[in-house]
């Protein structure tokens, strides 16, 4: 990717820097502080190529970058900003602790935000496209570990299974193991990444896609006093609800609605099987 400032042309290939540059050439109001906070994480992802179709900078971010990055855009009083989805966070990193019946009240039933049919346990990425023949030279498959597959009499998905002209790598994921154990079948999601050339970025993207597709979040609304008004969309809170068997469960603030004298907050529960303990009976 390139940016042009006057007569100067310079490369922009890190995800955070690319998003910052694209936003700088829009008329959108951007929250510079929150954007700066997200840039270091997004800069771990590298992209290359060029934009040859007419598309607005923000639409390019939404359609071509965000699907592969651990971030979501929100709008605040100072403008739009990206929030990193911190799946691995715990209660100690949350900005507020909430407990049903103590400092808030749950006012809706808990609902899944997506259907379980969207769960996957194999991500296949084809990348490093050859500009001459438009074929992808490299591939990466992230799925269940060989041990889990062997226990069920199956073989690890082969990254060379589609094209013998590609060099492929494979990796194992504990999320894929959990999903495969529960589903008892392989469910694959595949992507062609025309703007990715590096294996490290492909590996990172595969992890993001596995996390996003595997995690069927649960949504609920709570109400509380005006202190909840300090929350903003994108914040992480630790939520406890005895009726739902949740203790210091990490949740993402989706929306904050000021309905004086109370404040209503919509939460997305972020489940992690390696972090979250659940009763077995």
Largest sheet: 7 strands, mixed
Cα end-to-end separation: 53 Å
**Shape estimate:** flat
Radius of gyration: 21 Å
How many domains? The number is: 3
The share of residues in helices is 10-25%
Mean pLDDT: 83
Structural class by sheet pairing and helices? alpha+beta
Helix tally? Answer: 6
| Element order: H for helix, E for strand | EEHHHEEEEEEEHEHEHEEEE
How many distinct beta strands?
Answer: 15
Which structural traits does this protein have?
32% strand, 6 helices, 3 domains, disordered N terminus, 281 residues, alpha+beta, seven-stranded mixed beta sheet
Detailed description of the structure:
This protein has 281 residues and is α+β, with helices and mostly antiparallel strands. Helices cover 22% and strands 32% of the residues. The chain has three domains: 83 residues; 76 residues; 99 residues, no CATH class. The strands form four sheets. Strands 5, 6, 7, 12, 13, 14 and 15 form a seven-stranded mixed β-sheet that branches. 27% of the residues are buried. The N terminus is likely disordered.
